[in-house]
Specification:
This protein has eight helices and no strands. By secondary structure, it is mainly alpha-helical.
């Protein structure tokens, strides 16, 4: 096992990781764009039915959150899914001539950094189509007196969806599912989802939602960085 971080080795590992899982990653990328396309088409149909449940800020923020949770949890859970479940693939991962940091950061860049880049691009394009193409089309099919639906600027949508709590949730989910992909055996996603459900049940018991936002964010930040650190240490132990 190498001991020092190498940019050239890291780039090679990143290329191998992409080549090995490119079908999965490309499918997820296309699914992100497809989500907002279907969202816009559904909103168009509902507007023609004189309903606006898909075009208000609360609905768009909820859609953003659910999509974010679904994709980032799936990606993070698959970061090191083969460890502990497939001996041949586990040996292949561990025998690659890269440091633990190189492997861990490469996975992080794909499942977190690249995810956010594609996610925001898909959301912006999807919302642009919603308000500049689907919305005007829908208005042609309803009476002039139906003005309950107000056009919202795309950047306003993005700003509402990407508040500090939403970003905090995203990194918390990423850290939890990344850790689960390393320390859990079979059914990693389901087991991690169960643990997160219990975590939120515990938060509900202590009624944290009424606490100050700074304490709220501190607790999430503490668990997020702790899970990332534990995941790194566990991966390093695998490599020994």
């Amino acid at each position: 096992m190498k001991e020092f971080f190498s940019i050239s080795r890291f780039n090679k590992f990143l290329a191998i990781e992409w080549q090995t899982n490119r079908k999965k990653y490309m499918f997820i990328i296309m699914a992100m764009f497809a989500f907002w396309l279907l969202y816009g088409l559904t909103a168009l149909w509902l507007i023609t039915q004189k309903k606006d449940i898909f075009t208000n800020l609360t609905s768009i923020k909820l859609a953003f959150f659910l999509q974010m949770f679904g994709f980032i949890s799936f990606l993070a859970s698959g970061s090191f899914a083969d460890l502990g479940t497939d001996n041949n693939k586990s040996i292949y991962i561990l025998m690659l001539p890269n440091t633990t940091a190189e492997k861990y950061i490469a996975k992080f860049m794909i499942t977190a950094i690249l995810f956010w880049i594609v996610f925001f691009i898909s959301a912006f394009i999807g919302l642009y189509f919603l308000w500049n193409i689907f919305y005007p089309m829908a208005l042609q099919h309803i009476s002039a007196d139906f003005m309950a639906i107000k056009k919202i600027d795309v950047w306003t949508n993005i700003k509402v969806m990407t508040d500090i709590k939403c970003i905090t949730f995203a990194f918390f989910f990423h850290s939890a599912f990344t850790l689960g992909s390393i320390i859990l055996g079979k059914f990693k996603y389901i087991k991690t989802l169960l643990v997160i459900t219990l975590f939120y049940f515990a938060l509900a018991l202590v009624n944290l939602q009424v606490k100050a936002d700074t304490l709220y964010l501190f607790i999430y930040g503490f668990f997020t960085f702790s899970f990332w650190l534990i995941a790194y240490r566990k991966l390093k132990n695998y490599s020994l």
